[in-house]
UniProtKB/TrEMBL annotation:
The UniProt record lists the keyword Phosphoprotein: yes
Pfam families given in the database record: RsbRD_N, STAS
Matching PROSITE patterns: STAS
Keywords: Phosphoprotein
The keyword Mitochondrion is annotated on this UniProt entry: no
Protein name as annotated: STAS domain-containing protein
InterPro entries reported for this sequence: Bact_StressResp_Reg, RsbRD_N_dom, STAS_dom, STAS_dom_sf
Lineage, highest ranks first: Bacteria, Pseudomonadati, Planctomycetota, Planctomycetia, Gemmatales
Source species, domain of life: Bacteria
PANTHER family in the record: RSBT ANTAGONIST PROTEIN RSBS-RELATED, RSBT CO-ANTAGONIST PROTEIN RSBRC
Residue intervals of the STAS domain: 162-273
Length: 288
């Protein structure tokens, strides 16, 4: 089935570009997924015009393989539009509508062009539908990849924000943990802590687990690995925030924390850290 010959899309695109462009934009603006708050009409018009011209060049090449080199400019343009819309906040449906909304105005022109030849009309309508479906799927795939990339980057940024390493005193760092510790987050915690130890030259790090809701064997192992890595960098760790429930769980699991200093609260851990660094907290004399 040939969509690129004299009885294909080529004459439609060559003779009716302006009409097709206008009707296509109208169809997109009439769609319930149209987002004028995210894209201006002038920008939409430029994208539609660029696509029609890229489509015309691909059709003129004679190739029907949308994955071929002749269709690379079309794919590049659609990828750019999909990524842009993914970052702007368009939905999957709204992004795919850019391609699928072209069907109706194209079918209308095909009906006008081949009104006297029902067989050719049916063939060209089917071929055009298949072509736009393939391009629509490509748009959706690129959009989904963009969204997945954004979500992954946001998750990484949230991990960074959820594992702050704070300098409490000269030579004393604190790492307050909140939430569940999985392998990915534990790796981020270790990297951030070690980097801060190198930058500050601190000799003591307080890991506060007050905000960790549960303690299991995997979580304990992650903590021990972090403590061991910090020791290799020349810093000793104090684990604070050991609540009664956590203590019972650790004993029940048989996790050996005998080689790690633990405290019930960060305040207790901070006092101990100050002593190790040669500082002491004293109350001022009354009346002075």
């Amino acid at each position: 089935m040939n969509t690129t010959g004299s009885t294909g899309l080529r004459p439609i695109l060559e003779r009716h570009e302006s009409t097709l462009l206008a009707n296509w934009i109208t169809a997109q603006k009439a769609a319930p997924t149209y987002r004028p708050d995210l894209i201006k009409e002038n920008e939409l018009r430029d994208q539609c015009r660029d696509f029609l011209r890229a489509l015309m060049q691909a059709v003129q090449s004679g190739s029907q393989n949308v994955d071929g080199s002749e269709w690379q400019p079309v794919r590049d343009l659609l990828a750019s539009i999909s990524r842009s819309r993914g970052k702007q906040g368009f939905s999957t449906t709204a992004t795919a509508t850019f391609i699928f909304s072209l069907k109706e105005p194209l079918f209308q022109l095909l009906q006008q062009e081949y009104a006297n030849d029902p067989k050719v009309l049916a063939e060209q309508t089917w071929a055009t539908s298949v072509l736009l479906d393939r391009l629509g799927l490509y748009v959706t795939e690129v959009y989904q990849q963009t969204r997945d990339s954004l979500i992954q980057r946001q998750q990484e940024e949230m991990l960074e924000l959820s594992t702050p390493v704070v300098k409490l005193w000269e030579g004393v760092l604190a790492l307050p943990l909140i939430g569940t510790l999985d392998s990915a987050r534990s790796q981020t915690i270790m990297e951030n802590l070690l980097q801060k130890i190198v930058e500050s030259g601190s000799e003591t790090a307080i890991i506060d687990i007050t905000g960790v809701p549960t303690m299991d064997t995997l979580t304990a192992q992650h903590l021990l690995k972090t403590v061991a890595a910090a020791r290799l960098m020349g810093a000793d760790c104090i684990i604070s925030g050991i609540r009664p429930q956590i203590a019972q769980t650790i004993v029940h699991l048989g996790v050996d924390l005998s080689g790690v200093t633990t405290k019930a609260s960060m305040a207790d851990a901070f006092i101990l850290a100050l002593k190790r660094t040669g500082f002491a907290i004293t109350r001022p004399t009354a009346g002075r």
